[in-house]
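Q: How would the structure tokens look for this protein?
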Amino acid sequence: MAVAKKRIWGWMAFDWASQPFYTLGLTFIFGPYFAVVATEYFLGTGMEEGAAKAQSQAAWSFGQTIAGLMIAFTAPFLGAFADNSGRKMPWIAFFSVIYVVAAFMLWGLEPDGATIMLTLFIFYVGFFAAESALNFVNAILPSLGNDHEVGRISGSGAAFGYWGGVTSLFIMLIFFAENEQGVTFVGFAPAFGLDPDMREGTRFVGPFIAIWYAIFIIPFFMFVRDDPKAEKKSTRLGAVWGELLETLRAVFHRKSLLNFLVGSMFYRDALNALYAFGGVYAALVLDWQTTQIGVFGIIAAIAAAITTWLSGLADARFGPKPVIRVAVWVLIMVSAVIIGMSREAIFGVPLAQGSGVPDLVFYICGVCIGGAGGAVYASSRSMMVRHTHPERPAEAFGLFALTGKATAFLAPALITVFTIMTGNVQLGFLPVIFLFLIGLLLLRWVNKDGDRAEWSAS
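A: Here is the predicted structure in token form.
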């Protein structure tokens, strides 16, 4: 029993170690910093302000599109290869090294934007590594408990990860990330003598993410091991590819799994867009500074940690499907508010100059995005377990990653197109609502208990 608990805690350590890449990197610190630097860079090329902001958002979405396609093409094959060899840990270690190196190199984006495209490439290499490692870590989840226990474990793991995000964000805001006055949120000069004029406090987010991961991933590698009893099959590329194609063909005969994979493909794509562009929106539409966005991130992450833990309990009692549906509806309402709000008006109702209403509303949106997003993530992972063949978990979660990333280009691409067509950052978010609604519709045909019985019968 003690060994099993250590294995669960070790597995949960991955969420704690990796979450800062998403909290600090993708959403609340580096993403907004990139948006501001990119906007200034494009302004320097002669663009007017609105076009420069739109181009900045388009560049960020383009990077996410390419990374998503790479993950989609590689995840199922890597998962099938890992299942055949019976080994997942070497892959996790390999992608961890890439993650740490890429994160550390984010330091190189200086305020003049000279390395903006190189840094964009480096960031999404790190993103690719983080997501690839996560796929193998998720494939370990089915072995940690039965269907009811897995929902609780998944929710607790995700909640633990969000607390890691909150803690890391607190540290960044207190000691490193500077505002326009050159001091941190509490008035300190950036630690270690970092130069605020060169935004070194904010740029330290890259090395900080790398160091955080390198330290806190240690319990994962200490307590989590590959199953020595796992059946090992041929790892010849031809044999692996043949089994993967057979699995893909079988998916089309499994109604519940097919609808879940396709439905989650759309709503997870929309959710990832909210994560990726939330901080960018705050910087470009509400003109928030890094420290303001950081406080927003803390509030959102705390909401995510609490709500995700509660959603894990709800998952264990009611199953993952109802949790996902409620959370997606909340995200649809939040998206509508984001589209209808600017610094000057909310749904066409003018606001007094300098009004704090948009700030307050967006803080509330942050709570909803964090809470509902965490519930969607944890319960979708739990629902996938209910559709997973016990002997092919990595391949199954590879397919889960495939459908999560096969259209990962879709939301960023649509946001790019709508942003450029309208020249408006808010209207660029309109496709997100459509994607959420499609995903919600397809959930109607998903069996709340999965389809393991159907698989066994076949």
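The mean pLDDT is 84.

The radius of gyration is 21 Å.

Upvote if useful.
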